[in-house]
Design goal:
Mean pLDDT: 85
Radius of gyration: 18 Å
Helix content: 55-70%
Strand order of the largest sheet: 1-3-2
Distance between the termini: 22 Å
Number of strands: 3
Low-confidence stretches: none
Structural class: mainly alpha
Number of helices: 9
Largest sheet: 3 strands, antiparallel
Strand content: under 5%
């Protein structure tokens, strides 16, 4: 099975490798390139009107991020995550993200809270429309990353972002399969209020529980779905 890459205009030449990686990453996360799909360098190069060199480098970058796997004699594949893989991703998040939030909360500004609330309102609106499901994971990350932004730990945040990239398509799936929008909205609102009130302990506890519940509910949903 080969990926059908969208036929946008040619990528500007400011940094071809990064631009190709950004395009492919976005398509994988949004589910436009599905799990199990083979990414052919020649097809991608043709669609993006670039040589195979930046495509090859972009695929190596995405492999380092864990979004694809390069398999001998098959090339680049978007991996299928098992329920156990999903549980592991969410366990990693539950361990790392509260630590970053703990460092960030004391330094969050009123501007940060205004920005986070704006994203949260948009997220709440988008969750009401299943046809906008492609935006759910992106908005979820935007909300959380604003709350983590004042930790001043760029490498830490980069690691979490890579983990989140792997799980973003599953964040959307979790909300969809488990009908988890109402609980997600409630917990995001509670988390926002706790951060704004500088209640570090309660905010970190809620965040850990929020991530753990999402992981466990998605794992069970995947198990049930793959029995069909």
């Amino acid at each position: 099975m080969n990926a059908s890459v969208s036929t946008d205009l040619a990528i500007p030449r400011q940094s071809l490798t990064l631009a190709v990686a950004d395009k492919l990453r976005d398509q994988i996360i949004r589910g436009e390139i599905a799990e199990g799909v083979q990414l052919r360098q020649d097809a991608i190069a043709t669609q993006f009107r670039v040589s195979r060199i930046p495509v090859r480098e972009a695929l190596r970058q995405l492999e380092a991020e864990g979004l694809i796997t390069i398999v001998p004699n098959r090339g680049a594949i978007v991996p299928v995550l098992s329920p156990e893989d999903v549980e592991e991703l969410f366990t990693i998040r539950a361990l790392l993200e509260p630590e970053l939030l703990k460092l960030s909360i004391p330094h969050l500004t009123q501007g940060d809270f205004q920005q986070a609330e704006g994203v949260l309102k948009e997220f709440e609106t988008e969750l009401e429309m299943e046809e906008h499901m492609s935006k759910w994971g992106q908005l979820n990350w935007q909300f959380h990353s604003i709350l983590y932004s004042r930790a001043n730990r760029p490498r830490f945040l980069s690691i979490i972002r890579n983990v989140d990239n792997n799980g973003e398509r599953y964040t959307r799936l979790q909300l969809y399969l488990t009908h988890g929008a109402t609980r997600a909205n409630e917990e995001h609102r509670q988390l926002f209020d706790l951060c704004r009130n500088r209640d570090v302990t309660a905010a970190c506890k809620l965040l850990r529980q929020h991530i753990q519940h999402a992981g466990l509910s998605l794992k069970q949903a995947l198990v049930d779905r793959r029995k069909l």
